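Exercise 7. Predict the joint structure of the components listed below.
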Amino acid sequence: QKEVEQDPGPLSVPEGAIVSLNCTYSNSAFQYFMWYRQYSRKGPELLMYTYSSGNKEDGRFTAQVDKSSKYISLFIRDSQPSDSATYLCAMRGSGAGSYQLTFGKGTKLSVIP
Amino acid sequence: EAGVAQSPRYKIIEKRQSVAFWCNPISGHATLYWYQQILGQGPKLLIQFQNNGVVDDSQLPKDRFSAERLKGVDSTLKIQPAKLEDSAVYLCASSRLARELFFGEGSRLTVL
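Solution:
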């Protein structure tokens, strides 16, 4: 079992739809959870950053972490064509020597006008 | 604020040849990372520098890959000799704190 599992998609939705992206993980030591957005032929950019369990909202984006289920989600409301990209989940521990990020494979999202 | 600069953007070589990639991090960022991203995969850390010292190189194939960060600023990643499976995008990232990594656009390597 890989440490981080992420459905690679591709996922295609109409403009204005609510998008749900998910990752599961096996390492209970993970404490920090991130979502990165990667446009084609570009480097990843940080979208959301959360610590431990709970929700975090930023505009149209909401990140959820359920540590008891080892499950994280990213919701995108009112999706736009400009949201078309690959979304990577990433996570790491909190102690010294555990700063290395472990990434999922990424989910490719297309928002159709 | 200027972002992370990488060059070259694209490189095509034959197997067993050598290649070098260059990275200039964001000014003031002490930590520099090299990641390998194979098509359809998430980035995998190859090496992490703190200033000019190596923090983690546990996943760097040291028989063929080498990296250095002279004077704690720019960094180079070298592959010699290259194998077909080294075809990937090599991403450089830098950070001031562990919280947020800033990635460059990557160097895309094709090994024929």
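Discussion. Chain B touches chain A at residues 4, 40-45, 48, 56, 91, 93, 98-106, 108 (CB under 8 Å).
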